[in-house]
Amino acid sequence: MTQRPTLLSVTDLRVGFPDGPKGRETLHAVRDVSFDLAEGEVLALVGESGAGKSLTARVLLGMAPPAARTSGSVRFRGRELLGASRSGYAGLWGRHVAFVPQDALSVLSPVHTVGDQLAAAVRSVRRTGRAEARAAAVAALDRVGIADAARRAGAYPHEFSGGMRQRAVIAMAMINEPDLVVADEPTTALDPDVQEQVLGLLASLRETTGAALLLVTHDLDVVARHADRVLVLYAGETAEHGPVERVLGRPRAPYTAGLLASLPPGEPTGSRLLPVINGSPPTLREASSSPGCAFAPRCPLAADPCRTRRPTPSEVDAGHLVSCHRLTDVPDVPTCLFQPGGNG
Ligand SMILES: Nc1ncnc2c1ncn2[C@@H]1O[C@H](COP(=O)(O)OP(=O)(O)OP(=O)(O)O)[C@@H](O)[C@H]1O
């Protein structure tokens, strides 16, 4: 198989927020995260709430919170984006990179019709007449399965159901055939059956256009069905990273095993996770001040080095990275480290 060219390259990304007197201290929410995304590839970012998934995704889009302090490197086709001004992103947004948020209303304007917003997206990157842009908008709504698209294009976002709005946002993201789509929990706000339809739609449009996808999710079932590779984040750091079939088939980081053990067997996507990992993730301050592995207080395998030294990612297989001092002691069926109701 020929290797696809790298589209996005993230190296040693750190994102922190000011803390302490006069904000002189920085508490990091994302620490030393590195990954590449090839053209047409789907990479999922997973982890519990607060793991740093959204921040990582937003930094790539130039949408970090104003207070955020960032370092490292984010290159899109070799061009450095970290620290670029809004105008540095201007040629990328919409044309090469598109965003699908969790909440459609955060990107759709309430005062313009859906069709006008889609047509404006077309005209922001291509010189076309109004009629042509309008026709492209209607065709895009039709492609995402909105019935009677020509009439519906004249409706306002609040006249759409939640599922239709998310379809419209996907239509808007894909209308200029971007190279990269960043989707941040794109279906979390929807009913389970609509979630599945919307994810299927995103997957089929992505396949048709050949776009790469960075998918932020907390749902391992979604990862298994839609991603090529997965990066598991814990307290802002890489716990495990690699091809989906390896990471989910034979996890080598106790944290990934705990996430997998939390999945109720046979339950539909989006179902509540079983509480198998004791305790909760550290606060930013706890994670910043601990010298050891951030997962150690919850890990059934934690031993001395885990409490005193931070593990760094090591390659256990081609392209499969794990940050764990105890990785050689992780059993063949690692989910047995965790029992429903909480380990330890
Ligand atoms: N503007 C901000 N100021 C201070 N801390 C922030 C800010 N934005 C995010 N954080 C902190 O950064 C950490 C990571 O947040 P992030 O939103 O990336 O988590 P997440 O993994 O996407 O979680 P969720 O699944 O709940 O969205 C959290 O502890 C959060 O409180």
TrEMBL record:
Membrane topology category: Peripheral membrane protein
Q: One MF term in GO for this entry?
A: ATP binding
The listed locations are:
Cell membrane
Q: What positions does the domain ABC transporter occupy?
A: 8-260
Q: Which UniProt keywords apply?
A: ATP-binding, Cell membrane, Membrane, Nucleotide-binding, Transport
Chief location of this protein within or outside the cell? membrane
What name does the UniProt record give this protein?
Answer: ABC transporter ATP-binding protein
**Organism expressing this protein natively:** Streptomyces durbertensis
